[in-house]
Amino acid sequence: MSYTVGDTLPPFMIESVSADAMKQWAVFLADPNPIHLDVAVVKAKGLGDRVINQGPINVAYMMNMLMAAFPGGRIEAMDSRFLDNVYAGDRVVATGRITAVDGDRIDCEISLDAEGRGTVNSGTARVRINI
Amino acid sequence: MSELADLPPAPDVVGTKLDGTKTFTISAAENAALCRSTGVEPARDGTAHPIYYYIATQVAMGQTVAGLCAICEFDVEEGPMMGSSAVRSSAPLRTGGSYTVTGEILSLVRKRSRKLGVMDVLTYRLRLHERDGRVVLETDNVWVLPRKELA
Fold first, then answer.
1. Which of A7, A106, A119, B150 is buried most deeply by CB count within 10 Å?
2. Chain B residues with CB inside 8 Å of A43's CB?
3. ipTM given for this complex
4. Is A60 in contact with B84 (Cβ distance < 8 A)?
């Protein structure tokens, strides 16, 4: 497999972000913030009318995209900026593009978009590929 | 952003230690559930989902999210927001692996934005250690703490 600067990576898609997954992640993260669990709290805070995905889940979607694009590879570095919330029921797509190739290390731009609302997370990653 | 001469300074918390006191173990069952909750199957080679960089460091650091906010004199009920997260890793995390955390607050900077009004931007660094003490990854997280009382 060869990689070239400018190559786009196959997208990773979640058809509908799951409120049940947010309940699981409240346990994984040991963080029972109710904006991820209780629509009434989200409404009361003026944050919308659906529960809000925990930020690290959105990072995980982008990681899934990278791991699928580079089988056997390892994410050596990654940074991501949280630009907007992802809500239960959202359709989200993680995408990426190669920006540099240095031996077995590939640099990428990555992003997560929510349908109808644009980019909600963006960043960069360096993946060490399995040659 | 604008000048803040009219506002009190952010709390002086730079250097506050966030070292954990407990060990975090990635269970194979939890890793499998986590992977499936994000739409993928767990790896067959024993590696854990890389997002455990965030989970392990947050869960095993020396403070809860509420406690970290309290150090910054911020009530978690006011709604801290994730600004960014970065990780630098030297080896994959593994199911069955046990890890400890060290870390510290790097900065707490008071700013004023058009969108959020007055806010404190918290940056903290956490390191995940293997049993032998070797650092397997380092992460810098940035949180935005809206200071509605100062808006």
1. A106
2. none
3. 0.95
4. no
